[in-house]
Design a protein that fits this description.
Layout: H1 13-26, H2 40-43, H3 51-61, E1 66-69, E2 73-78, H4 80-83, H5 88-100, E3 107-112, E4 138-139, E5 142-143, H6 148-158, E6 162-165, E7 172-176, E8 180-184
Length: 205
């Protein structure tokens, strides 16, 4: 769900290789085909995305935006970190994926590192451990929510059945446009400010 390396955007290649070896030792890929997502801690955010770091991420973890086809579903992994940029060289690959996406009569499950926009007073539900909402704020190399304009474009273009997001560290569940559920997946790290780390298991048939 992104942020594979806690501060990877600040690392030179030598230190990255050291941490990559550690990552692969912890998350062994035995008899599974993992799918990865890029996060702002990996490459930066928006206009601050470093294309060299994006290339490095894709070299070791695969494309930043892609589709996984399941029997009855399409899993659309969309690089909203780069898509949030106003710079064409950063934004255009993710934008092209969004514009060309075709569901081919399958339901779409959308994955975005950054949660989509919602009204400031929209509750995250009873499973959230910290504040009741995700605040729409931003700072150095981060933005808590995808902008309203971009969120509206994504939802109108993709028309997902379900949305999964990350970045916030805590659980959040909201409904977009009356029917589209978005679940922000909590961190399973013990060092990210959440008393009870968690995960989400998705079963598809």
């Amino acid at each position: 769900m992104g942020d594979l390396m806690d501060n990877g955007r600040e690392w030179d290649d030598e230190y990255f290789q050291k941490e990559l070896k550690r990552f692969n030792k912890i998350f062994k890929r035995r008899n599974i085909n993992p799918y990865f997502m890029v996060g702002n801690h990996d490459i930066g955010f928006g206009d601050g995305v470093d294309l060299r770091l994006l290339d490095r991420f894709q070299k070791y973890f695969g494309q930043a935006s892609y589709v996984v086809q399941h029997t009855n579903y399409n899993l659309l992994i969309l690089d909203t970190v780069s898509l949030s940029s106003s710079i064409p060289q950063i934004r255009d690959n993710a934008l092209s994926m969004l514009q060309k996406y075709q569901p081919h009569n399958k339901a779409t499950i959308l994955f975005s590192h950054v949660p989509l926009y919602r009204q400031p007073d929209m509750s995250c539900g009873p499973l959230r451990q910290t504040t009741s909402t995700i605040r729409d704020s931003h700072g150095y190399q981060y933005q808590n929510l995808v902008s309203k304009e971009l969120s509206d474009l994504i939802l109108a273009t993709v028309r997902p059945t379900l949305v999964f997001s990350a970045d916030d560290h805590d659980y959040c569940e909201v409904i977009h446009n009356g029917t589209i559920k978005e679940i922000t997946v909590p961190t399973f790290s013990m060092s990210q400010g959440i008393r009870f780390p968690g995960l989400v298991v998705l079963s598809m048939s």
